[in-house]
Amino acid sequence: MAAVCDVCAKGPGFGHNKPWSKKKTNRRWNPNIQRVRATISGTSKRMNVCTGCLKAGRVSR
């Protein structure tokens, strides 16, 4: 499953792990994506939605 919100298109952030030894390795921060059944214009549809959109009420379950 792709880590992208279907509502706000929020995707993963990229950066580096930086331990004490200063040896940088690549990593990514995925958004908290939940698969919910949302109602859009009367029909229900499964969507990948981030928890920020759920809390803000951009999606009605």
Features:
61 residues, mainly beta, Ribosomal Protein L24e, Chain: T, two-stranded antiparallel ribbon, Ribosomal_bL28/bL31-like_sf, Ribosomal_bL28, structural constituent of ribosome, ribosomal protein
Supply Rg: 16 Å
Shape: elongated
CATH class categorisation: Mainly Beta
Secondary-structure element order, as H and E?
A: EEEEH
Number of helices: 1
Total domains, how many? 1
Query: What is the total tally of β strands?
Result: 4
Strand percentage: 35-45%
Structural class: mainly beta
The biggest beta sheet, please?
2 strands, antiparallel
**Helix proportion range:** under 10%
The end-to-end span amounts to 21 Å
Instruction: Enter the CATH topology name.
Output: Ribosomal Protein L24e, Chain: T
Average pLDDT metric: 93
Which ranges are low-confidence, i.e. pLDDT below 50, for 5 or more consecutive residues? none
Architecture (CATH level 2) name: Roll
Q: Within the largest sheet, what's the order of strands?
A: 1-2
InterPro entries: Bacterial_rp_bL28 (IPR050096), Ribosomal_bL28 (IPR026569), Ribosomal_bL28/bL31-like_sf (IPR034704), Ribosomal_bL28_bact-type (IPR001383), Ribosomal_bL28_sf (IPR037147)
Pfam family, one: Ribosomal_L28
Keywords: Ribonucleoprotein, Ribosomal protein
Protein name: Large ribosomal subunit protein bL28
